[in-house]
């Protein structure tokens, strides 16, 4: 791994490049490179076999200058405080790029959810929420789904918080089931945002996503919806990989059939509509668009030189190391950075929070139209900034984000 193995250091490298170009005030620079609050909790759970296991969980509120902390909760065996802190920082910049009134937060629990029963998963979720209960709330910190968490888990988060405060508090968490205060369009929102910015980037580069060849790494919530909506926009999805394996077909994969297959088998591995492919081959394919939609540190100096795509659209958070990003940029690859490309999820989370607080719910096409507008505005702001500063899109996105947070930090002034 690059950046000394630390994901937070990778975030800092990205930040520093932009802050230097921006001529950021040194005091503000210090503030924005430190997490506001990091919470570590132990969650003892009685397992189905009667034994007690203790799971470690984190919640980091990186910055809350623009509003309540906002960001998902991930369940993964590889979760670390360093990773959660970097992800919380990225949420800060993402919310600022999306121009929504939130700060950045993130949560994580070290666990392998595939080895937990439904009862154990519920118990772990409720205990984790109980342990961080004082730190969260509609005005304080609003969690959401992330890697390996879904609407059912958000329902348990909402219920646990509501039981503690003594009333139903829908706005404490987003990405909930639609029946209990979730927003229409939220589940698809991250993938929809990826589709929108990819379409805009192609337009900027002078080609149409219609007919473009696309390879997608990851077939979870982000990868699968990105693939589906890009295919609906006329792109040809020629390869998809996931945690277990992958499938390619140069004539284009049948994504609706693949979605059914994935629902049944929990993987796309073995899908009959193509030939097997692995990640190494996927990254080197002759495609117009590559969508990394899995985990961090997937595009490194090991595979960046093989990438032939014109556009890399970062559905995942932190999929490209700083060194690999520099290499891609220098070799003419148009990288749409994570804090822009995958901002559709948190943008629709903002819409969900607004609807919950009003107790008035919008039609799906209204949600999607508002998302379309927000994503296009964010894309234009980032593109124009990167052109003005003669830099890559990631640095442009950081410049937009840092300027917005820095302006408000200065306006609010220093307490004590
Ligand atoms: N986990 C998603 C992200 O990384 C969504 C966060 C949210 O909706 O708060 O952007």
Question: How would you describe this protein?
Answer:
With 416 residues, this protein is of the alpha/beta class. It has helices spanning 7-22, 26-32, 81-98, 118-131, 151-165, 186-205, 221-232, 255-265, 279-283, 322-330, 338-341, 344-358, 364-388, 393-412, and strands at 37-46, 52-63, 69-76, 103-110, 141-145, 213-217, 236-241, 246-248, 275-276, 289-292, 311-313, 334-336. The strands form two sheets. The protein has a seven-stranded mixed beta sheet with strand order 9-8-7-6-10-11-12, sandwiched between helices. The protein has a five-stranded mixed beta sheet with strand order 1-2-4-3-5. A hairpin with a 5-residue loop joins strand 1 and strand 2 (52-63). The longest helix is centred in the C-terminal third of the chain and has 25 residues, at 364-388. The two termini are 40 Å apart. Glutamic acid is lined by residues 70-72, 94, 144, 146, 174, 317, 342, 345-346, 349.
Short description:
The protein is α/β, with parallel strands linked by helices and 416 residues long.
Judged by helices, strands and strand pairing, the structural class is: alpha/beta
**How would you sum up the global shape?**
globular
Q: How much of the polypeptide forms β-strand, as a percent range?
A: 15-25%
Which strand order do you get reading across the main beta sheet?
Answer: 9-8-7-6-10-11-12
Oligomer: single chain
Number of domains: 2
Distance between the termini: 40 Å
> Nearest-angstrom radius of gyration?
20 Å
**Name of the level-1 CATH class of the largest domain:** Alpha Beta
- Give the SSE string: HHEEEHEHEHHEHEEHEHEEHEHHHH
Biggest sheet architecture: 7 strands, mixed
**What compounds are bound to the protein?**
glutamic acid
Kindly report the CATH topology of the largest domain. Answer: Rossmann fold
Number of strands: 12
């Amino acid at each position: 791994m690059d950046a000394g193995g630390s994901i937070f250091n990778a975030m800092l490298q990205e930040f520093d490049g932009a802050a230097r170009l921006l001529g950021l005030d040194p005091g503000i620079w210090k503030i924005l490179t430190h997490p506001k609050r990091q919470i570590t909790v132990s969650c003892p759970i009685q397992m189905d076999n009667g034994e007690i296991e203790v799971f470690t969980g984190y919640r980091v509120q990186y910055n809350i200058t623009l509003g309540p902390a906002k960001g998902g909760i991930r369940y993964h065996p590889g979760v670390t405080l360093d990773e959660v802190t970097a992800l919380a920082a990225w949420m800060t910049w993402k919310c600022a790029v999306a121009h929504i009134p939130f700060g950045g937060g993130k949560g994580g629990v070290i666990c392998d959810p595939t080895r937990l029963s439904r009862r154990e998963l519920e118990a772990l979720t409720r205990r984790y929420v109980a342990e961080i209960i004082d730190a969260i709330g509609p005005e304080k910190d609003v969690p959401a789904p992330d890697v390996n968490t879904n609407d059912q888990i958000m329902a348990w988060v909402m219920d646990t918080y509501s039981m503690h405060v003594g009333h139903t508090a829908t706005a404490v968490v987003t990405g909930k089931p639609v029946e209990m205060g979730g927003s229409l369009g939220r589940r698809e929102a991250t993938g929809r945002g990826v589709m929108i910015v990819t379409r805009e980037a192609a337009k900027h580069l002078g080609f149409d996503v219609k007919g473009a060849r696309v390879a997608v790494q990851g077939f979870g919530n982000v990868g699968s919806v990105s693939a589906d909506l890009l295919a609906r926009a006329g792109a040809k999805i020629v390869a998809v990989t996931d945690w277990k394996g992958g499938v390619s077909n140069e004539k284009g994969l049948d994504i609706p059939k693949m979605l059914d297959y994935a629902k049944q088998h929990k993987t796309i591995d073995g899908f009959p509509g193509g030939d097997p492919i692995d990640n190494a081959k996927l990254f080197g394919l002759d495609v117009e668009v590559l969508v990394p939609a899995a985990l961090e540190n997937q595009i490194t100096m090991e595979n960046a030189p093989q990438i032939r795509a014109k556009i890399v659209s970062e559905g995942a958070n932190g999929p490209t190391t700083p060194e690999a990003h520099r290499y891609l940029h220098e070799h003419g690859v148009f990288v749409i950075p994570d804090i822009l490309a995958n901002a559709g999820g948190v943008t629709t989370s903002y819409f969900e929070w607004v609807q919950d607080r009003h107790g008035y719910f919008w039609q799906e096409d209204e949600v999607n139209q508002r998302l379309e507008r927000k994503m296009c505005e964010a894309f234009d702001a980032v593109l124009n900034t990167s052109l003005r500063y003669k830099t890559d899109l990631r640095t442009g996105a950081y410049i937009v984000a840092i300027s917005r947070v820095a302006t408000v930090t200065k306006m609010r002034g220093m307490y004590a």
